Amino acid sequence: MKVLVTGGAGYIGSTTAKALEMAGHTPVILDSLLTGPRAFVRDRIFYEGDVADRALVRRVFAEHPDLDCTIHMAARIVVPESVAEPQVYYRDNVAKSLELFDELVRLGRTRVVFSSSASVYAAAEDFEVTETSPLAPASPYARTKHMMEQILEDMSRASGLRALILRYFNPIGADPELQSGVHVREPSHVLGQMVMAATGQRDAFMVTGTDYPTVDGTGIRDYVHVWDLARAHVAAVEKLDDALARTGSTSSVLNVGTGRGVTVRQLLAIFEQVFGRRVPTVDAPPRPGDVPGAFANVDKAKEVLGWRSELSVAEAVASALAWAGKRAEVLGYS
């Protein structure tokens, strides 16, 4: 199967492209390279450009008429940045995505897997959320994901569009063969910040938020290895039609996580055990848009995709540390 991957030069996109290849599929990459590095494209079929460029999208499908599915990952993802520049996030994540999906419908290329986010969920008393749990996106970034879910649901009812919507929890780690990983120089996510503190690139790791209603006061997340997340996309592409038939719908939402909640301090303890040394830390207030967090109930993904996570948080930490030592070689910059 040939699959269009928008944002395929990014951290998750490039890892998913590799997982597709290992499963016998051919990824076709569409990426603006706004954030994703060209090195992650490797020797794959590649188109540089914007997902809202309808002429380019038409060209991609004209040159690859056997494209069978689109995985739409291209998006801005930094929560504090979305608070500071909401208009940029609504433009790039919503308006441009709508252009892409409208063009896909016009072309009759209606099988879609969409990257959404667990940040759409409202706080749950026990922190576990199912796909039917209440939603309350707390940042412009999260609201863009919620809006796109609603748009896909409406479009699938009104047209031939068929969509599996994957709500990512917290991807961590690197490609097991260290061909890709977190590429931004100063990652905003928690594990990237830990790696920087552990390797001397920062004075200390900042524990942002220490009075949440969790076992130790720090935020709780479901940390899923990026390779497991990539495997979930392969399953979604391969089983999209059957999954929608099982759910009896034209679009369906699936949680993609481990099913286990880990607090920031618990993650830090796992990190220090893998790293072999203590990491200097400083307590700090929550960042704009931060929430206490949640972890996934993953029963639906197991049922309709036959997918579950296989790699541990410790394995993800080890791969992230190994990637930190190799990223300069892969990317050509430190």
Helix content: 40-55%
How many β-strand stretches? 15
By CATH, the topology of the largest domain is Rossmann fold
CATH architecture of the largest domain: 3-Layer(aba) Sandwich
CATH classification class of the largest domain: Alpha Beta
Number of helices: 10
Q: Which structural category fits the helices and strands?
A: alpha/beta
Largest sheet, described in full? Answer: 7 strands, parallel
Radius of gyration: 19 Å
Order of helices and strands: EHEEHEHHEEHEEHEEEHEEHEEHH
Keywords:
globular, seven-stranded parallel beta sheet, alpha/beta, UDP-galactose 4-epimerase, domain 1, 41% helix, two-stranded parallel ribbon, 334 residues, Rossmann fold
Fold and architecture overview:
The chain contains ten helices and 15 strands. It folds into two domains: 2-172 and 223-256, Rossmann fold (3-Layer(aba) Sandwich), CATH 3.40.50.720; 190-221 and 259-295 and 310-331, UDP-galactose 4-epimerase, domain 1 (Alpha-Beta Complex), CATH 3.90.25. Helices cover 41% and strands 19% of the residues. The protein has 334 residues and is of the alpha/beta class. Helix 1 links the parallel strand 1 (2-6) and strand 2. Helix 1 packs across helix 7 (226-247), helix 2 (54-63) crosses helix 4 (86-107) and helix 8 packs across helix 10. It has a seven-stranded parallel β-sheet with strand order 3-2-1-4-5-7-12, sandwiched between helices. A two-stranded parallel ribbon has the order 6-15.
Give a brief outline of the structure:
With 334 residues, the chain is α/β, with parallel strands linked by helices.
